[in-house]
Amino acid sequence: MKTWYIRILPRPExxxxxxxxxxxxxxxxxxxxxxxxxGKIIELTADKDISxxxxxxxxxxxxxxYNPLVExxxxx
Amino acid sequence: MKIGVVRFxxxxxxxxxxxxxxxxxxxxxxxxxxxxxxxxxxxxxAVPGGFSFGDYLxxxxxxxxxxxxxxxxxxxxxxxxxxxxxxxxxILCEAGLLPGALIPNESGLFIDDWAELENPSTKISIxxxxxHGDGRFxxxxxxxxxxxxxxxxxxxYKNSLNGSIDKxxxxxxxxxxxxxxxxxxxxxxxxxxxxxxxxKFWI
Lengths: 76, 203
Fold this sequence. Notes:
Mean pLDDT of chain A: 94
Radius of gyration of chain A: 16 Å
Number of helices of chain A: 2
Helix content of chain B: 10-25%
Number of strands of chain A: 3
Low-confidence stretches of chain B: none
Number of helices of chain B: 4
Mean pLDDT of chain B: 97
Strand order of the largest sheet of chain B: 2-1-3-4-11-10-9-6-7
Radius of gyration of chain B: 15 Å
Order of helices and strands of chain B: EHEEHEHEEEEHEEE
Oligomer: heterodimer
């Protein structure tokens, strides 16, 4: 079985209210962080090898897995 | 009784809970998420529902780590009554004051309805409103057994509502003074509300 992870974060120029809230919570606990961005990871699995997986993943990502206008996605 | 009503940014059932307590003869007082107070200052606490801190990370996760929770824990440890309703229940679970966690409903849908409940010990049946998206009670198998052994299951749905393990709608801590439930007793204590089962519900 093959697994891919797509890491999705809000674009740096987009206000990440969730990240800002989590940062404030961490600061309230005296944690030394200056920035938090909250995104998501999508795990994709396939029972068999996919030939030309890069193109297939690109197509899958175009099916609404992320919004390139406001998010950045990286396949890991 | 002097009952503190804890509010966070995003709490939205606070005034209902305040009025509910007041009408029952208690003396509610507001508490804010930044407050620190001594357990001697209150005789009990209520944590109302809503969407605290936007339910970021998980429902109740950020609220559970806010400053006021240090004092809430102190009150809970002192043995005084503490109730969490809906998001308040989620917050108390996230804070480790109640066992388990509340995860998204099995259907994936927000449920806004009335639910019939039963107390597994007394067999008392009541009907209360529910309004939640993350109301499915979850707990690991070994902890589930302990809940039953220690009489910590407070309310069960009569019919499977949201996929909760054992149809659990509310639980208590081991000592029994901290309680949490997803349904809203504060929305059902006058005839015009559609039911009165929320009256004298807790203390």
